[in-house]
Amino acid sequence: MKDKQIIIAIDGHSSTGKSTVAKQLAKALQYIYVDTGAMYRAVTLYAMRKGYIDVSHFDQEELENNLPLISIKFEINAVTGLAEVMLNGENVEKEIRTLAVSKHVSKIAAVSLVRKKLVEQQHQMGKDKGIVMDGRDIGTVVFPNAKLKLFMTATAKDRAERRFLELKERGENVTYEDVLKNVVNRDHIDSTRKDSPLRKAGDAIKIDNSNLTLEQQFEQILQLAKTTIKNA
Ligand code: DC
Asked: What angle do CA 227, 231, 232 make, to 5 degrees?
């Protein structure tokens, strides 16, 4: 008999490796992986390109009025087998990961109408279960009944170091100080916004991975998932 399909919600602070472990888990369980941060990043890229947001201003009303024109979809990359984000039919997977987008995304993600649009889409994606979804509000708002909820965290310093190396590897010209500032700033905006702030769901399992290797973390989480699926 096929194992029961569940929803696995992974939330936590910026750059805690949520997407890395979510991808590993989805692969091991043959589940679908959804990176909800990519959806907020794609809307942010749209707003930047249209000039609705830059370092000195944010025209929230323009963004809200134009939301119906924004289509966010995922498409599987035939080579990697991973889902990549499409903004109005254009693959923007690389562009949404830049520090420039990271600098504006928390402001865009605090807009209720943006959240409403993307959460509706996320509900659709999870309706057949068999999904690993990562973000900030998955266990609290999007799928409060998810069978397994994880809340990932690590010190800001550890997270900034990891993200800095990742951006450098991708050829971005960034400083460690800039990345640390962005991590701390996003934590602050994501946790203090009015709509769906980042917080640990009461029934989420907290994983502090400051001192865990990727392998240790994956093993721990895979065991949790297997046990939860068995008991579902
Ligand atoms: O996971 P990430 O760093 O790619 O997410 C980018 C931003 O999007 C993050 O700073 C907050 C926002 N976000 C959110 O508000 N809710 C989600 N479910 C996912 C991301």
From this structure: 115
The identity of residue 73, as a single letter, is K
Token output for 121 = 């889409």
Mutational pocket test of ligand 1: of 95, 118, 190, the residue with most ligand atoms within 8 Å of the beta carbon:
190
Q: Are 33 and 26 in contact (CB under 8 A)?
A: yes
Nearest CA to ligand 1 atom 10: 106
Q: Please say whether the dihedral angle defined by the alpha carbons of residues 182, 216, 220 and 75, taken in this order, is positive or negative.
A: positive
Residue 5 Cα to ligand 1 middle (Å) = 25
CA 137 to chain CA centroid, nearest Å: 9
Q: pLDDT tens, position by position, for the chain (232 residues)?
A: 567 899 999 999 999 999 999 999 999 999 999 999 999 999 999 999 999 999 999 999 999 999 999 999 999 999 988 899 999 999 999 999 999 999 999 999 999 999 999 999 999 999 999 999 999 999 999 999 999 999 999 999 999 999 999 999 999 999 999 999 999 999 999 999 999 999 999 999 999 998 889 899 999 999 999 999 999 9
CA–CA dist 117, 156 (Å, integer): 30
Pairing of strands 131-135, 90-91: unpaired
Q: Which residues line ligand 1 (CB under 6 A)?
A: 14, 36-37, 40-41, 105-106, 109, 135-138, 186, 190
Cβ contacts of residue 96 below 8 Å, gap of 6+?
38, 41, 42, 44, 45, 85
